Amino acid sequence: MTFFLIPIVNFLSFFMTIDTGWRGSLKLVYASHEQATRVAYAQARAPLKMQRSLYPEGKVVCHNIILHTAGGIVGGDRLDLDIQLQPYANALLTTASAGKIYRTNGLKANQTIHVDVATGACLEWLPQETIVFDRAIYRQNMRIELAAGATWLGWEMTRFGRSARDETFLQGDWRSHTEIWQEGRPLWIDRQWLPGSEASFYGHHGLAGCPVVGSFAFVGQAVDPTLVEKARSLWTGAGESGVTRLQSGLLCRYRGHSTAEVRRWFVEVWRLMRLSFLGRSGCVPRVWGV
Predict the structure, then answer these.
(1) Contacts from 222-225 at CB under 8 Å and sequence distance 24+?
(2) Distances (CA, A) of 179 to 142, 174, 225
(3) How confident is the model over 161-183, as pLDDT tens digits?
(4) Which of 3, 163, 169, 172 has the fewest CB within 10 Å, making it most exposed?
C-alpha cells in the first residue's frame, strides 16, 4: 500500500504546482505604403484574437477589433500585446465588447502591453470599458515608445464592481501603470492603484462612492490652451471631470457613475483632437453601438 501511495502523492503534487491560466499573446505590425495602412504581420495566441481589418474612412487608417475569446480575465492569466507602427502608419484598435476581470482564484492576473510608434505614425488605442469584479487581483503595465513626430491617442474606462448587481469593489487589488516615452524622454507616466476596501471605494481621495473612472490622453504634440478650454466645454455630464495640459499633449480624467456618460465625453474630445491634429473627423467604430 505504501509502495503505491508515494508515487500517487508526487503525481498529484506535480499537477497542483502547475500555474493555471491563459498565456495569451498578440503581436501586430502595421506598415504604410502609398498612404494606405495595412497589417504587415500578425500573430495571435488564444485567448487573444484579431478580426479582419476594416477601412470605414478610407485606406489611410486601418481599424482592427481585438477579441478575448475566453470572455474575461481570471487569476493566473498572463496576456502580452506587442504593437508596432512603422513610419506614417495609422491604426485604430478597439475591443469587441466590455472587458471583464473576474474575482481571483488566489492568483494574480497580468496584462502587459508594449507599443512602438515610428515617425509620422499614429496609434489610437480605444478599448471599450473594463468591469473589475469584487475580489479581482489585476496588474496592467503599458509602455508606449514614440519616435519624433509620432502620436498617441488612448483611453481607459473602468467600472469597479458590477453595479447592476449592487456589487462594490471592497476586496481585491487593481493596478494600472502607463508610461509614454519619446526618444528617451518621459512624456507621461501614470500609476493608478485601487486596493479593495471601504476607505478606497467610499473615501474622497479614492472613488468617493463613484464606481466608474476614466482617463483619456493625447500625447506627442504640444496642445494650445484654447484646445484645453474646448475640451472642458464639451463636458455636460453629472460626474466629476478635469482636463490638464501636458508637456506634449492633453489629459482628461473622469469620476462618476455612468460608463455611457464618460464615453460620450471622451468621444467628443477624441473627435476634437483628431480634427485638430490629424485633420480627420471622428469615425466611430460600429462595434461600439452593438
Answers:
(1) 222/248, 222/249, 223/249, 223/250
(2) 6, 17, 23
(3) 999 899 999 999 999 999 999 99
(4) 3
Q: How far is CA 21 from CA 12, 46, 105, 154, 163, in A?
A: 18, 11, 10, 28, 27
Give pTM, 2 decimals.
0.91
Count of C-beta atoms within a 10 Å radius of residue 236:
10
Pairing of the two strands 23-33 and 48-50: unpaired
Q: Tell me the HSE value of 94 on the side-chain side, using a 13 A CA sphere.
A: 20
User: Residue 85 in contact with residue 114, Cβ under 8 Å?
Assistant: no
Nearest to 207 by CA among 198, 215, 216: 198
More confident residue, 265 or 18: 265
Task: Select from 97, 93, 110, 119 the least CA-distant residue to 32.
Answer: 119
Residue 124 scores a pLDDT above 70: yes
At 262, list the grid cell: 464618460
Strand 173-182 relative to strand 212-219: parallel, antiparallel, unpaired? unpaired
Nearest partner of 155 among 237, 235, 217, 95, judged by Cα: 217
